[in-house]
């Protein structure tokens, strides 16, 4: 007669999950990444726009993988520095005319912009800014001055306007972030001075360009013809 007590196989213990959870970053690690970006900017490896964009991403990083992606193309701290960019011009004038400058050199000293019955446009996004700070002294007399800065910078505007206007149209930076700064000392007499970031500069054109790129990436483009930004 067979034994009524059947032998049961031992229950297998649950297998441990071998997938490691992403490691969350600390505030100290974020600050270290921001300092690494600052050093890269001093060495001329990052433009003003790149420094600002990556600084914002570093503060918003949640995992170490996020931070590693921000600094993956930068050398380790202590590596030989790159040759600095050539100094950018410091003075820009428009007297009964126009001055439109996209600065790509190194900004080490304060810039000056003067518009007298004319228009001055300064684009700072591709400049090299070793200190992470830019100072601009602006005078507009019956003229207009427009300064284009990267998204995410902090703008400090001082000065006065007499029968004119001084305006800042940039995205507000959350408190506590050590981000690049643009300081503008503005004097407007029957003229306008405006500081805008990339988000507020030509928004319609950028929206069309973004739509076109997304459409092409989905295979919806017809032929190799130029898009709205081409």
TrEMBL record:
This is Cell wall-active antibiotics response LiaF-like C-terminal domain-containing protein. It holds the Pfam family DUF1707. Residues 1-29 are annotated as: Disordered. Signal peptide: none annotated. Residues 1-11 have a biased composition (Polar residues). InterPro entries: DUF1707_SHOCT-like, LiaF-like_C. Residues 23-75 form the DUF1707 domain. It comes from Actinomadura keratinilytica. Residues 110-169 form the Cell wall-active antibiotics response LiaF-like C-terminal domain.
């Amino acid at each position: 007669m067979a034994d009524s007590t059947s032998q049961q196989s031992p229950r297998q213990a649950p297998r441990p999950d071998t997938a490691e959870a992403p490691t969350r970053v600390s505030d100290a690690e974020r600050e270290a990444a921001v300092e690494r970006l600052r050093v890269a900017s001093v060495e001329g490896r990052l433009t003003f726009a790149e420094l600002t964009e990556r600084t914002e991403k570093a503060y918003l990083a949640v995992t170490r993988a996020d931070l590693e992606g921000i600094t993956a193309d930068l050398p380790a701290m202590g590596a030989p520095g790159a040759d600095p960019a050539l100094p950018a011009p410091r003075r820009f004038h428009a007297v009964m005319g126009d001055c439109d400058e996209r600065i790509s050199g190194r900004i080490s000293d304060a810039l000056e912009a003067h518009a007298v019955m004319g228009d001055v446009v300064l684009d700072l996004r591709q400049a090299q800014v070793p200190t992470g700070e830019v100072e601009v002294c602006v005078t507009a007399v019956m003229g207009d001055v427009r300064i284009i800065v990267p998204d995410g910078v902090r703008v400090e505007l001082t000065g006065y306007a007499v029968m004119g206007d001084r305006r800042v149209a940039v995205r507000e930076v959350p408190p506590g972030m050590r981000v690049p700064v643009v300081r503008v000392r503005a004097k407007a007499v029957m003229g306008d001075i405006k500081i805008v970031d990339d988000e507020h500069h030509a928004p319609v054109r950028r929206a069309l360009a973004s739509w076109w790129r997304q459409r092409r990436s989905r295979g919806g483009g017809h032929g190799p013809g130029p898009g709205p930004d081409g």
